[in-house]
Design a protein that fits this description.
Blueprint: E1 2-4, E2 9-11, E3 15-17, H1 26-37, E4 42-43, E5 53-56, E6 66-69, E7 79-84, E8 87-92, E9 102-108, E10 114-120, E11 130-136, E12 143-149, E13 159-165, E14 169-171, E15 197-198, H2 204-228, H3 230-241, E16 245-248, E17 256-260, E18 277-281, H4 292-305, H5 320-329, H6 334-341, H7 377-380
Parallel strand pairs: 1-14, 15-16, 16-18
Antiparallel strand pairs: 1-17, 2-3, 4-5, 5-6, 6-7, 7-8, 8-9, 9-10, 10-11, 11-12, 12-13, 14-17, 17-18
Helix pairs in contact: 1-3, 2-3, 2-4, 4-5, 5-6
Length: 389
Protein backbone atom coordinates (compact mmCIF):
# COMPACT_ATOMS: atom_id res chain seq x y z
CA UNK A 1 0.00 0.00 0.00
CA UNK A 2 1.02 3.55 -0.39
CA UNK A 3 0.34 6.23 2.17
CA UNK A 4 -0.27 9.97 1.75
CA UNK A 5 2.53 10.67 3.97
CA UNK A 6 4.57 9.89 1.23
CA UNK A 7 4.99 12.56 0.28
CA UNK A 8 3.06 -5.95 -33.18
CA UNK A 9 2.63 -8.52 -34.58
CA UNK A 10 1.98 -11.83 -32.83
CA UNK A 11 1.81 -15.40 -34.09
CA UNK A 12 -0.30 -17.92 -32.23
CA UNK A 13 2.62 -19.81 -30.85
CA UNK A 14 5.55 -17.97 -32.25
CA UNK A 15 5.70 -14.76 -30.30
CA UNK A 16 6.31 -11.20 -31.33
CA UNK A 17 8.61 -9.27 -33.59
CA UNK A 18 9.51 -5.61 -33.18
CA UNK A 19 11.36 -2.97 -35.13
CA UNK A 20 11.77 -0.85 -31.98
CA UNK A 21 15.09 -0.20 -30.30
CA UNK A 22 16.03 -3.17 -28.10
CA UNK A 23 15.99 -2.87 -24.34
CA UNK A 24 13.59 -2.88 -21.39
CA UNK A 25 11.13 -0.16 -22.33
CA UNK A 26 7.50 0.89 -22.41
CA UNK A 27 7.29 0.42 -26.18
CA UNK A 28 8.63 -3.13 -26.09
CA UNK A 29 6.28 -3.95 -23.19
CA UNK A 30 3.30 -2.90 -25.32
CA UNK A 31 4.54 -5.11 -28.17
CA UNK A 32 4.98 -8.04 -25.76
CA UNK A 33 1.50 -7.40 -24.35
CA UNK A 34 -0.01 -7.62 -27.81
CA UNK A 35 1.73 -10.96 -28.36
CA UNK A 36 0.52 -12.25 -24.99
CA UNK A 37 -3.07 -11.23 -25.71
CA UNK A 38 -2.90 -13.10 -29.04
CA UNK A 39 -1.97 -16.33 -27.25
CA UNK A 40 1.77 -16.42 -28.00
CA UNK A 41 3.83 -18.97 -26.10
CA UNK A 42 7.26 -17.46 -26.85
CA UNK A 43 7.60 -13.72 -26.30
CA UNK A 44 10.41 -11.21 -26.73
CA UNK A 45 10.29 -8.91 -23.70
CA UNK A 46 13.01 -6.46 -24.69
CA UNK A 47 12.85 -6.24 -28.47
CA UNK A 48 16.23 -7.87 -29.13
CA UNK A 49 14.80 -10.60 -31.38
CA UNK A 50 15.22 -13.32 -28.74
CA UNK A 51 12.21 -14.95 -27.09
CA UNK A 52 13.13 -14.78 -23.39
CA UNK A 53 9.65 -15.51 -22.03
CA UNK A 54 8.27 -19.02 -22.56
CA UNK A 55 4.74 -20.04 -21.57
CA UNK A 56 3.69 -23.68 -21.33
CA UNK A 57 0.20 -25.14 -21.14
CA UNK A 58 -1.63 -22.15 -22.65
CA UNK A 59 -5.01 -22.93 -24.20
CA UNK A 60 -5.93 -20.25 -26.73
CA UNK A 61 -4.97 -17.01 -24.98
CA UNK A 62 -5.50 -18.33 -21.45
CA UNK A 63 -3.00 -18.54 -18.58
CA UNK A 64 0.05 -20.79 -18.64
CA UNK A 65 0.72 -23.65 -16.24
CA UNK A 66 4.46 -22.95 -16.32
CA UNK A 67 6.42 -19.86 -17.33
CA UNK A 68 10.16 -19.34 -17.67
CA UNK A 69 12.43 -16.43 -18.56
CA UNK A 70 15.99 -16.91 -19.80
CA UNK A 71 17.60 -13.64 -18.76
CA UNK A 72 21.22 -14.21 -19.79
CA UNK A 73 20.68 -16.07 -23.11
CA UNK A 74 22.40 -19.26 -22.02
CA UNK A 75 19.44 -21.47 -22.93
CA UNK A 76 18.61 -22.17 -19.28
CA UNK A 77 15.72 -20.63 -17.34
CA UNK A 78 16.75 -18.03 -14.78
CA UNK A 79 13.20 -17.49 -13.51
CA UNK A 80 10.54 -20.21 -13.28
CA UNK A 81 6.88 -19.88 -12.31
CA UNK A 82 4.92 -23.10 -12.03
CA UNK A 83 2.02 -24.86 -10.35
CA UNK A 84 2.91 -28.10 -8.56
CA UNK A 85 -0.20 -29.66 -7.05
CA UNK A 86 -1.78 -27.04 -4.78
CA UNK A 87 1.46 -25.04 -4.55
CA UNK A 88 2.53 -22.11 -6.70
CA UNK A 89 6.32 -21.92 -7.01
CA UNK A 90 8.68 -19.15 -8.06
CA UNK A 91 12.40 -19.92 -8.43
CA UNK A 92 15.10 -17.43 -9.42
CA UNK A 93 18.73 -18.07 -10.38
CA UNK A 94 20.21 -14.66 -9.60
CA UNK A 95 23.79 -15.24 -10.75
CA UNK A 96 23.46 -17.66 -13.68
CA UNK A 97 25.19 -20.57 -11.94
CA UNK A 98 22.33 -22.98 -12.58
CA UNK A 99 21.16 -23.01 -8.95
CA UNK A 100 18.06 -21.20 -7.71
CA UNK A 101 19.06 -18.87 -4.89
CA UNK A 102 15.57 -17.45 -4.32
CA UNK A 103 12.54 -19.74 -3.96
CA UNK A 104 8.93 -18.88 -3.08
CA UNK A 105 6.28 -21.49 -2.34
CA UNK A 106 2.68 -20.35 -1.94
CA UNK A 107 0.24 -22.85 -0.43
CA UNK A 108 -3.49 -22.20 0.10
CA UNK A 109 -4.75 -23.31 3.51
CA UNK A 110 -8.09 -24.88 4.37
CA UNK A 111 -9.23 -21.75 6.22
CA UNK A 112 -8.79 -19.50 3.19
CA UNK A 113 -5.35 -18.08 3.94
CA UNK A 114 -2.20 -18.34 1.83
CA UNK A 115 1.06 -19.52 3.37
CA UNK A 116 4.20 -18.19 1.69
CA UNK A 117 7.60 -19.68 2.45
CA UNK A 118 10.54 -17.75 0.99
CA UNK A 119 14.04 -19.20 1.17
CA UNK A 120 17.15 -17.31 0.08
CA UNK A 121 20.80 -18.15 -0.43
CA UNK A 122 22.20 -14.65 -0.12
CA UNK A 123 25.88 -15.67 -0.31
CA UNK A 124 25.83 -18.01 -3.32
CA UNK A 125 27.20 -21.00 -1.41
CA UNK A 126 24.17 -23.20 -2.28
CA UNK A 127 22.97 -23.21 1.35
CA UNK A 128 19.86 -21.16 2.24
CA UNK A 129 20.61 -18.68 5.01
CA UNK A 130 17.29 -16.83 5.29
CA UNK A 131 13.78 -18.20 5.49
CA UNK A 132 10.69 -16.03 5.75
CA UNK A 133 7.22 -17.42 6.39
CA UNK A 134 4.33 -15.07 5.66
CA UNK A 135 0.66 -15.89 6.15
CA UNK A 136 -1.93 -13.64 4.54
CA UNK A 137 -5.50 -13.39 5.83
CA UNK A 138 -8.23 -12.65 3.26
CA UNK A 139 -10.25 -9.55 4.03
CA UNK A 140 -7.47 -7.95 6.07
CA UNK A 141 -4.52 -5.71 5.30
CA UNK A 142 -2.01 -7.44 7.52
CA UNK A 143 -0.02 -10.65 7.59
CA UNK A 144 1.94 -12.63 10.15
CA UNK A 145 5.66 -12.81 9.31
CA UNK A 146 8.36 -15.06 10.78
CA UNK A 147 12.07 -14.78 9.92
CA UNK A 148 14.79 -17.37 10.47
CA UNK A 149 18.52 -16.95 9.78
CA UNK A 150 21.51 -19.24 9.35
CA UNK A 151 24.42 -16.92 10.04
CA UNK A 152 27.17 -19.55 10.28
CA UNK A 153 26.15 -21.32 7.04
CA UNK A 154 25.85 -24.74 8.67
CA UNK A 155 22.43 -25.49 7.20
CA UNK A 156 20.60 -24.85 10.48
CA UNK A 157 18.52 -21.72 11.13
CA UNK A 158 19.83 -20.58 14.50
CA UNK A 159 18.03 -17.25 14.94
CA UNK A 160 14.43 -16.35 14.40
CA UNK A 161 11.81 -13.77 15.29
CA UNK A 162 8.24 -12.89 14.39
CA UNK A 163 6.67 -9.62 13.34
CA UNK A 164 3.64 -8.28 11.49
CA UNK A 165 3.25 -6.74 8.08
CA UNK A 166 0.66 -3.99 7.87
CA UNK A 167 1.05 -4.49 4.19
CA UNK A 168 -0.10 -2.56 1.28
CA UNK A 169 -1.65 0.83 2.08
CA UNK A 170 0.13 4.10 1.54
CA UNK A 171 -1.34 6.40 4.15
CA UNK A 172 -1.18 10.02 5.12
CA UNK A 173 0.34 11.28 8.35
CA UNK A 174 3.01 8.59 8.63
CA UNK A 175 6.13 9.94 10.27
CA UNK A 176 9.69 8.96 9.53
CA UNK A 177 9.27 8.27 5.83
CA UNK A 178 12.36 6.99 4.12
CA UNK A 179 11.25 8.24 0.73
CA UNK A 180 11.83 11.56 -0.95
CA UNK A 181 10.06 11.49 -4.29
CA UNK A 182 11.36 13.42 -7.26
CA UNK A 183 9.03 15.50 -9.48
CA UNK A 184 6.60 13.53 -11.62
CA UNK A 185 7.78 12.61 -15.12
CA UNK A 186 6.16 14.42 -18.02
CA UNK A 187 2.77 13.02 -19.09
CA UNK A 188 2.90 10.47 -21.91
CA UNK A 189 0.65 10.41 -24.95
CA UNK A 190 1.58 7.00 -26.29
CA UNK A 191 -1.10 4.89 -27.96
CA UNK A 192 -1.73 2.06 -27.44
CA UNK A 193 -1.16 2.04 -23.72
CA UNK A 194 0.06 -0.71 -21.43
CA UNK A 195 -3.02 -2.94 -21.06
CA UNK A 196 -5.15 -1.74 -18.16
CA UNK A 197 -8.74 -2.18 -17.04
CA UNK A 198 -10.18 0.88 -15.27
CA UNK A 199 -13.55 0.27 -13.67
CA UNK A 200 -16.65 2.47 -13.54
CA UNK A 201 -15.76 4.02 -10.19
CA UNK A 202 -13.36 6.27 -12.14
CA UNK A 203 -14.51 9.16 -14.30
CA UNK A 204 -13.27 9.29 -17.91
CA UNK A 205 -10.81 12.02 -16.96
CA UNK A 206 -9.51 9.97 -14.02
CA UNK A 207 -9.21 6.89 -16.23
CA UNK A 208 -7.11 8.89 -18.68
CA UNK A 209 -4.88 10.16 -15.87
CA UNK A 210 -4.44 6.60 -14.58
CA UNK A 211 -3.54 5.22 -18.02
CA UNK A 212 -0.92 7.92 -18.54
CA UNK A 213 0.45 7.41 -15.03
CA UNK A 214 0.71 3.64 -15.56
CA UNK A 215 2.58 4.19 -18.82
CA UNK A 216 4.94 6.54 -16.98
CA UNK A 217 5.40 3.97 -14.18
CA UNK A 218 6.29 1.22 -16.67
CA UNK A 219 8.54 3.50 -18.73
CA UNK A 220 10.50 4.81 -15.77
CA UNK A 221 10.56 1.44 -14.02
CA UNK A 222 11.86 -0.30 -17.17
CA UNK A 223 14.58 2.31 -17.65
CA UNK A 224 15.58 2.06 -14.00
CA UNK A 225 15.65 -1.75 -13.83
CA UNK A 226 17.63 -1.92 -17.08
CA UNK A 227 20.47 -0.25 -15.18
CA UNK A 228 20.07 -2.36 -12.05
CA UNK A 229 18.99 -5.91 -12.68
CA UNK A 230 17.49 -7.60 -15.75
CA UNK A 231 15.90 -10.31 -13.61
CA UNK A 232 13.79 -7.76 -11.77
CA UNK A 233 13.21 -5.74 -14.94
CA UNK A 234 11.92 -8.68 -16.98
CA UNK A 235 9.73 -9.91 -14.13
CA UNK A 236 8.23 -6.40 -13.85
CA UNK A 237 7.56 -6.14 -17.59
CA UNK A 238 6.16 -9.69 -17.68
CA UNK A 239 3.56 -8.64 -15.15
CA UNK A 240 2.73 -5.45 -17.07
CA UNK A 241 2.36 -7.40 -20.33
CA UNK A 242 -0.14 -9.97 -19.04
CA UNK A 243 -3.08 -7.57 -19.15
CA UNK A 244 -4.02 -8.43 -15.56
CA UNK A 245 -3.66 -4.88 -14.25
CA UNK A 246 -6.90 -3.40 -12.94
CA UNK A 247 -7.37 -0.05 -11.21
CA UNK A 248 -10.44 1.25 -9.44
CA UNK A 249 -11.17 4.59 -7.82
CA UNK A 250 -13.28 3.17 -5.04
CA UNK A 251 -10.90 3.74 -2.12
CA UNK A 252 -13.08 5.76 0.26
CA UNK A 253 -10.61 6.62 3.04
CA UNK A 254 -9.01 9.96 2.09
CA UNK A 255 -6.01 9.21 4.32
CA UNK A 256 -5.06 6.24 2.10
CA UNK A 257 -3.50 6.98 -1.27
CA UNK A 258 -3.63 3.50 -2.80
CA UNK A 259 -3.81 -0.19 -1.90
CA UNK A 260 -2.52 -3.29 -3.68
CA UNK A 261 -5.84 -4.96 -2.99
CA UNK A 262 -5.16 -8.56 -3.98
CA UNK A 263 -1.68 -8.65 -2.44
CA UNK A 264 -3.41 -9.74 0.79
CA UNK A 265 -5.23 -12.58 -0.97
CA UNK A 266 -2.27 -14.70 -2.03
CA UNK A 267 -1.43 -12.61 -5.11
CA UNK A 268 2.07 -11.52 -4.15
CA UNK A 269 5.68 -12.46 -4.89
CA UNK A 270 4.68 -12.85 -8.56
CA UNK A 271 3.33 -16.39 -8.18
CA UNK A 272 1.08 -18.04 -10.76
CA UNK A 273 -2.64 -18.39 -10.25
CA UNK A 274 -3.47 -14.78 -9.44
CA UNK A 275 -6.46 -13.85 -11.64
CA UNK A 276 -5.75 -10.14 -11.70
CA UNK A 277 -3.52 -7.44 -10.25
CA UNK A 278 -5.80 -4.91 -8.58
CA UNK A 279 -4.82 -1.46 -7.33
CA UNK A 280 -7.40 0.72 -5.54
CA UNK A 281 -6.69 4.45 -5.66
CA UNK A 282 -8.35 7.30 -3.79
CA UNK A 283 -9.68 9.84 -6.26
CA UNK A 284 -9.44 12.76 -6.65
CA UNK A 285 -5.79 11.94 -6.18
CA UNK A 286 -4.00 13.83 -3.41
CA UNK A 287 -0.69 15.35 -4.62
CA UNK A 288 0.66 14.87 -1.09
CA UNK A 289 0.89 11.18 -1.95
CA UNK A 290 3.65 11.92 -4.44
CA UNK A 291 3.45 11.48 -8.22
CA UNK A 292 0.65 9.14 -9.29
CA UNK A 293 3.10 7.16 -11.46
CA UNK A 294 5.33 6.53 -8.44
CA UNK A 295 2.36 5.39 -6.34
CA UNK A 296 1.20 2.93 -9.04
CA UNK A 297 4.77 1.65 -9.43
CA UNK A 298 4.93 1.02 -5.66
CA UNK A 299 1.64 -0.87 -5.56
CA UNK A 300 2.48 -3.04 -8.57
CA UNK A 301 5.80 -3.96 -6.92
CA UNK A 302 3.85 -5.56 -4.06
CA UNK A 303 2.73 -8.18 -6.57
CA UNK A 304 6.38 -8.91 -7.39
CA UNK A 305 8.32 -8.36 -4.17
CA UNK A 306 5.75 -9.23 -1.55
CA UNK A 307 4.27 -7.29 1.33
CA UNK A 308 6.33 -5.10 3.62
CA UNK A 309 7.89 -7.56 6.03
CA UNK A 310 8.28 -5.07 8.86
CA UNK A 311 5.20 -2.99 9.65
CA UNK A 312 4.33 -0.60 6.83
CA UNK A 313 7.89 -0.58 5.52
CA UNK A 314 8.52 3.11 6.04
CA UNK A 315 10.95 2.56 8.90
CA UNK A 316 12.87 -0.29 7.28
CA UNK A 317 15.94 0.74 5.31
CA UNK A 318 15.96 -2.75 3.80
CA UNK A 319 12.39 -2.70 2.45
CA UNK A 320 12.67 -3.66 -1.25
CA UNK A 321 9.42 -2.01 -2.37
CA UNK A 322 10.36 1.38 -0.93
CA UNK A 323 13.97 0.80 -1.98
CA UNK A 324 12.99 0.28 -5.62
CA UNK A 325 10.54 3.18 -5.58
CA UNK A 326 13.06 5.58 -4.16
CA UNK A 327 15.79 4.35 -6.51
CA UNK A 328 13.61 4.68 -9.61
CA UNK A 329 11.50 7.73 -8.72
CA UNK A 330 13.15 9.46 -5.78
CA UNK A 331 16.55 10.41 -4.44
CA UNK A 332 18.45 7.22 -5.14
CA UNK A 333 21.52 6.18 -3.19
CA UNK A 334 23.70 3.11 -2.75
CA UNK A 335 21.49 2.18 0.21
CA UNK A 336 18.11 2.48 -1.58
CA UNK A 337 19.55 0.52 -4.51
CA UNK A 338 20.82 -2.24 -2.21
CA UNK A 339 17.41 -2.50 -0.56
CA UNK A 340 15.76 -2.78 -3.98
CA UNK A 341 18.09 -5.60 -5.04
CA UNK A 342 18.05 -7.32 -1.63
CA UNK A 343 21.81 -7.10 -1.39
CA UNK A 344 24.46 -5.48 0.81
CA UNK A 345 25.19 -1.77 0.74
CA UNK A 346 28.21 -1.41 -1.56
CA UNK A 347 27.11 -3.93 -4.20
CA UNK A 348 28.80 -3.00 -7.51
CA UNK A 349 25.45 -2.82 -9.30
CA UNK A 350 24.65 0.21 -7.15
CA UNK A 351 27.96 1.96 -7.81
CA UNK A 352 26.38 4.57 -10.07
CA UNK A 353 24.38 6.09 -7.22
CA UNK A 354 25.61 8.48 -4.53
CA UNK A 355 27.03 6.56 -1.57
CA UNK A 356 24.92 6.51 1.58
CA UNK A 357 26.56 5.10 4.67
CA UNK A 358 24.92 2.54 6.88
CA UNK A 359 23.85 3.70 10.36
CA UNK A 360 26.72 3.84 12.81
CA UNK A 361 24.59 2.08 15.41
CA UNK A 362 21.60 -0.22 15.23
CA UNK A 363 18.50 2.02 15.09
CA UNK A 364 15.37 1.34 17.09
CA UNK A 365 13.64 -1.61 15.49
CA UNK A 366 16.85 -2.30 13.58
CA UNK A 367 15.76 -1.31 10.05
CA UNK A 368 19.17 -2.20 8.65
CA UNK A 369 18.63 -4.70 5.84
CA UNK A 370 21.40 -3.73 3.38
CA UNK A 371 23.71 -2.93 6.29
CA UNK A 372 23.46 -6.30 7.96
CA UNK A 373 26.87 -7.46 6.75
CA UNK A 374 28.52 -4.79 8.88
CA UNK A 375 26.64 -5.58 12.07
CA UNK A 376 27.10 -8.20 14.73
CA UNK A 377 24.33 -10.73 13.94
CA UNK A 378 23.31 -11.45 17.55
CA UNK A 379 22.80 -7.71 18.12
CA UNK A 380 20.78 -7.21 14.99
CA UNK A 381 18.87 -10.42 14.46
CA UNK A 382 16.34 -10.35 17.30
CA UNK A 383 14.64 -7.22 15.94
CA UNK A 384 15.57 -7.10 12.27
CA UNK A 385 14.13 -8.36 9.07
CA UNK A 386 16.55 -9.82 6.56
CA UNK A 387 14.91 -8.20 3.56
CA UNK A 388 17.51 -6.32 1.56
CA UNK A 389 20.41 -8.18 3.10
Amino acid sequence: MVSLAFALIAGCGGGNTSTLAPGLSLDNTVVAATAYAAGATDIDLDGDGRFEWHLEGRVSNGPATRETIDVNADGQPDMVWEQVGPDSLLRIDRNGDGAFEYIVKATPTLDGRTLFVVTEDTTGDFVPDHRMTLTTVPGTTSAAVAHEFDYDQDGVFEVGFSTTSSGGARQSAISGLILSIAPSPAPLTMSPHVPLTVDSTCTPAQANDLRNALDAAVAQGASCFAKLDNHLGMAFLRLAATGKLQINCGLADPTICAVASRSFEGCTFGVLGCPDVVVSVHMPYNPACGPLASTLFHEILHYLLGLHSMGDGTGDLGDPVYGCEQTCFGKASSLTCAACLRTVNGDSRCGGYPPQACPATVPAGCPCGPCRAGLDPPVCAPSCTDVGR
